[in-house]
Amino acid sequence: MTLDLAVIGGSGLYAFEGLENTERHSVDTPFGPASGDIVTGDFHGKRLAFLARHGESHTVPPHRVNYRANLWALHSLGARRVVAVNAVGGIRDDMGPRTLVVPDQVIDYTHGRYTSFNDVEGAEVRHIDFSEPYTESLRQAILAAARAEGLAIIDGGVHGVTQGPRLETRAEIARMKRDGCDLVGMTGMPEAVLARELDLEFACLALVANFAAGAGDEAEISIEEIFAHLKAATANVAPILGRLLSPA
Ligand code: HPA
Description:
Bound molecules: hypoxanthine
CATH superfamily: Nucleoside phosphorylase domain
Shape: globular
Largest sheet: 11 strands, mixed
């Protein structure tokens, strides 16, 4: 199968509306089941694959996502270019709720996740270059598509990835800020490194749902507000990706 684009949906994006001639694929992988079926369909005259990272009913928490199975399944269906949509908290002042960001760097604070396809008995140890965790041409394509749609979007930022599923403490966010993080999410890693191991083009479209703990004025973070902001930000995803697929 030829796929022009694969999309991994995060919190707030459990189905990709507007796909035509859809097919569902339940893919067996050497790493167990993916988060759910992959749905392929036509979108802007191209073939798109969609996978809900947390499952279609949001039942798989960030630390239990089978990242290896998800990437493997997309790759085995023919995906070569993947846009990961991630809900994040903003740390930097200009990254408030509903801001769109295409990060260019990652700091990984997660633990206990499988971070390599070669993390199996007897497999050769593999060290890969990860100086630039995202594919620059794909980052630029997302930015150009968003701007062509008349949307404000921030180019670059350090995406700190925490274990979840709880949100962070103020002290943790203060430390992440000192570390240089601009955004915080729970699912950016090991997704990006596994994509690199498969030589996929890979970039993240981050949707800011809230100011991270202590980064805004709020004493605490409202989960209802997170989902309201996410819903609004998510409405931009299909137009951006449609433009990415048919730029003219
Ligand atoms: N922290 C981590 N992940 C998130 C947040 C946050 O504040 N908001 C949305 N995803």
